[in-house]
Amino acid sequence: MRGTPQTFQALVVGGGLVGKAAALALTQIGMRVALLAQPAHPLPPGARFDSRVYAFSSSSQTFLERLRVWQAIDASKIGPVYDMRVYGDANAELHFSAFQAAVPQLAWIVESNVVEHALDTALRFQPQLNWLDARAQGLEISDAHATVSLDNGETLTAGLVIGADGAQSWVRAQMGAKVERRDYQQTGVVANFRISRSHGETATQWFTGGEIVAMLPLAGPYASLVWSARTAHAQALLEMSPEALTAALADVVGDRFGTLECVTPAQGFPLALQTVDRLVAPRVALVGDAAHLIHPLAGQGMNLGLRDVASLVDTLGAKETFRDVGDPILLRRYERSRREDIQRMMAATDGLQRLFALPGPIAKGIRNAGLALVGAQPQIKRWLVSHALG
Fold first, then answer.
1. Which of 78, 168, 229, 382 has the fewest CB atoms below 10 angstroms from its CB?
2. Structural domains in the chain?
């Protein structure tokens, strides 16, 4: 087929959970789709866990269920979250409860690798999908279609190109979107731990010294660490032995989880706030980290990306018969549908990060008083839970 363009209705550039979910969802509404992505990487030999986990909101779980992916995930790998406890840096505490909010659960914690493998399996059964382990290297837009050249010499044409290729998105660069990025000067350090005392299906978060330490409940006697640490401190944590990292964590969490044992190598990823001036261009749309990047303190980045996908797919599925999938009017509908949700989540996560990074006793007193005030207002807590659930 070299030299002969293959034609698709949509071309998804980028794998990961968001890109693969987009490709699967589009095929399930009857579109012929090409996906440029690698299969999920297997765990290293002897490894039992993926260091990186995600907190899936109700909206994300519902969407993956709609794709018939959630049902295929091993139930023993899904950790429900029924409670969340947030501790300030001056003894203030905030408690969220699924029972009090009248919802079945606050979230589910699942390893990234587990969900991505389930998506890979589902994609392999889609006759409308052409999955290529290749990289895009050229994009040309015409009134009729988009043309993408690949590094293997092939050429693809599509009515719509979807950029799901992460924070350093190649697709976004081709469409000329303006990017604003503010580095938090922090790195997210992640690792999983065996615990001797039950986590009680509770997610716990500590704000301490301008950093944020979160322990997320995995299925069974395990918990996942997400430590948003200043860059220099994070580098030190990443260079520690498993025993030293365990001791550093115990200094923060005390004996809440009993005896801790690090069971995965620590990994790190830089933290930043990133916005783009537009989500769409002629025959191009952005989803996931290509469209926005937020602080992980609320665990909402991936959920925001899956809501992008759900909105884009619903918009394309409801299009008028006379419209092409790359119609600018159609794409602007998608962009408008996502604006409020993205801006609200960015403001919330960035505001909290800034608030707890402020030095000095006055700032500490104000933020801890705020936590205590929110904790005493059941209606505010229910509102916060409803927005976190998506």
1. 168
2. 6-44+116-180+272-352 (3.50.50.60)
